[in-house]
């Protein structure tokens, strides 16, 4: 799909076909599971199924999303390593293409989403530990202590497994 020219009207641009629609929905479902915005799945899905790199304006028109949403989605996808900028001959606009390397996608997600959550979780668990120890009801304090211990265990396992996963993926 060639980039949108200034004189083209949105009505002249073809609608999404059934394959494009299903691929986009596949990625929308995937980002929902990860707690990411729908627009990120839509953008990545369209870039994934597009034979040519697309510019920001192309994404806005084809997906029917705002320029701000497209811009934020592209920024997030770049930070995750899921898209890359491509130079297109005779065009001053920046174009984007989906990165197809699974290790980059997973590695970027771990780096940008999971690791920060684990790091903040450590300090939150320390706070919980202090709060639980101040519980006046002995039975309830024991219950809270057990739950906080479980959270500490999960965070420890996560910190152990993530580097191994990144190593397996070549990150």
Explain what this protein looks like in three dimensions.
This is Transcriptional regulator. It comes from Luteolibacter luteus. Keywords: DNA-binding, Transcription, Transcription regulation. It is a single chain. The chain has helices spanning 18-33, 38-49, 56-63, 67-80, 102-133, 138-168; strands at 54-55, 83-86, 95-98. It has 6 helices and 3 strands. 66% of the residues lie in helices and 6% in strands. It has 2 domains: 10-98, Winged helix-like DNA-binding domain superfamily/Winged helix DNA-binding domain (Arc Repressor Mutant, subunit A, Orthogonal Bundle), CATH 1.10.10.10; 102-168. The chain is mainly alpha-helical. It is elongated, with a radius of gyration of 22 Å. Residues 1-13 have low confidence and may be disordered. The protein has a 3-stranded antiparallel sheet.
Topology summary:
Blueprint: H1 18-33, H2 38-49, E1 54-55, H3 56-63, H4 67-80, E2 83-86, E3 95-98, H5 102-133, H6 138-168
Antiparallel strand pairs: 1-3, 2-3
Helix pairs in contact: 1-2, 2-4, 3-4, 5-6
GO molecular function, one term: DNA binding
Protein name: Transcriptional regulator
Organism: Luteolibacter luteus
β-sheet strand percentage: 5-15%
Give the domain tally: 2
- Poorly predicted regions are 1-13
Assign a percent range to the helix content: 55-70%
Number of strands: 3
| Number of helices, counting only DSSP H or I runs of 4 residues or more | 6
Fourth CATH level, the homologous superfamily of the largest domain:
Winged helix-like DNA-binding domain superfamily/Winged helix DNA-binding domain
Order of helices and strands: HHEHHEEHH
């Amino acid at each position: 799909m060639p980039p949108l020219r200034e004189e083209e009207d949105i009505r002249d641009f073809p609608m999404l076909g059934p394959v494009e629609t299903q691929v986009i929905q596949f990625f929308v479902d995937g980002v929902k599971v990860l707690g990411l915005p729908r627009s990120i799945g839509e953008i990545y899905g369209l870039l994934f199924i597009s034979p040519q790199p697309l510019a920001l304006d192309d994404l806005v028109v084809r997906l029917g999303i705002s320029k701000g949403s497209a811009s934020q989605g592209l920024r997030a996808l770049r930070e995750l390593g899921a898209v890359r900028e491509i130079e297109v001959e005779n065009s001053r606009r920046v174009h984007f293409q989906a990165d197809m390397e699974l290790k980059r996608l997973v590695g970027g997600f771990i780096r940008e989403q999971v690791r920060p959550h684990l790091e903040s979780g450590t300090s939150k668990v320390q706070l919980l530990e202090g709060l639980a120890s101040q519980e006046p009801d002995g039975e309830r304090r024991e219950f809270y202590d057990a739950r906080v211990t479980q959270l500490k265990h999960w965070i420890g396992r996560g910190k152990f497994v993530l580097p191994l996963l990144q190593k397996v993926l070549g990150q």
